[in-house]
Amino acid sequence: MKLSIIVPAHNESANLKLLVPQIDTILSTLNEEYEIIVVDNASTDDTLEILNILKRQFSSVISVFEPKKGFGSAILAGLARSQGDVIGYIHADNQMEAMDIVRIYQKLKLENLDICKATRADRYDGIMRWVISRVYNLLFRAMFHVRLRDINGSPKLFTRNFFYAAHITSRDWFIDPEIIIKAQRRGARMGEVMIHTKPREHGSSQVRATTVLEFLKNMFYYWRQK
Predict the structure, then answer these.
(1) Distances (CA, A) of 198 to 38, 95, 96
(2) Which residues contact 219 (CB under 8 A, 6 or more apart)?
(3) Which DSSP helix (H) or strand (E) runs through 53?
(4) In sequence order, what E strands does 42-114 have?
């Protein structure tokens, strides 16, 4: 298996119907083995029913159920099930293009990187989220001496060797920065690809005001460990 893509999803059935076929279509152009692992993260909508339909339509689709709600919990459940030499994830909100996975994957292979991720050129989350993200990224780069810009940018891909060595443990939204912190401290080769995003058309964001406090707490925890 060459490539495993994880799609963590909490109540994203309307988006999964659009996103998963797009991912399968674009990954099929690589002429390499791949799998799409959709993690039903304690969904209360018709995600299970939609996944059963998608699995019948696409042999590449695998479903995993993760009962403990949390972005990191869903990703870790998918990573545990994955078999690819390169593994990664994309948000289920259908705001990123499936083609971006291929662009990031090709850059990772061409430049022999350990991790490669998206950097969003534009956002459609509102002015407040834009301001919070701007301040967060500036603070993160200052604290951890990271040159990457959009720390939480997705899709995010990395080698299986890096995943095994990094021992990722975050079960909340901090899984993105934890990956970057551990990559930086291990001297991993990192790269980024500029992408354009789309407005969310279905479902609602799971990011809450408490997420900001969660990030700050975790950032200072890892900063004290340096």
Answers:
(1) 21, 5, 6
(2) 139, 140, 143, 177
(3) helix 47-57
(4) 61-66, 86-89
The count of other CB atoms within 10 Å of the CB of residue 151 is 21
Rounded CA-CA distance 14/53 in Å is 13
Strand, coil or helix: 51: helix
CATH of the domain at 66: 3.90.550.10
- Per residue in 25-44, pLDDT (tens digit) is 999 999 999 999 999 999 99
Sheet bearing 115-120, strands edge to edge: 61-66, 34-41, 3-9, 86-89, 156-159, 115-120, 190-195
Q: Domain range holding 171?
A: 3-224
Name the pTM for this structure.
0.92
- What's the token pair of residue 172? 């909340």
Give whole-number Cα distances, 153 to 81, 83, 128, 157, in Å. Answer: 23, 23, 18, 11
- The tens digit of pLDDT for each residue in 140-162 reads 999 999 999 899 999 999 999 99
Q: 98 is written with which tokens?
A: 């499936």
**DSSP conformation letters of 135-188:** HHHHHHHHHHT---S-TT-SSEEEEHHHHHHHT----STTHHHHHHHHHHHTT-
Per-residue confidence (pLDDT) for residue 127, from 0 to 100: 74
* DSSP-assigned beta bridge partners for residue 87: 4, 158
**How many domains would you assign to the chain?**
1
* Tens of pLDDT, residues 69-82: 999 999 999 999 99
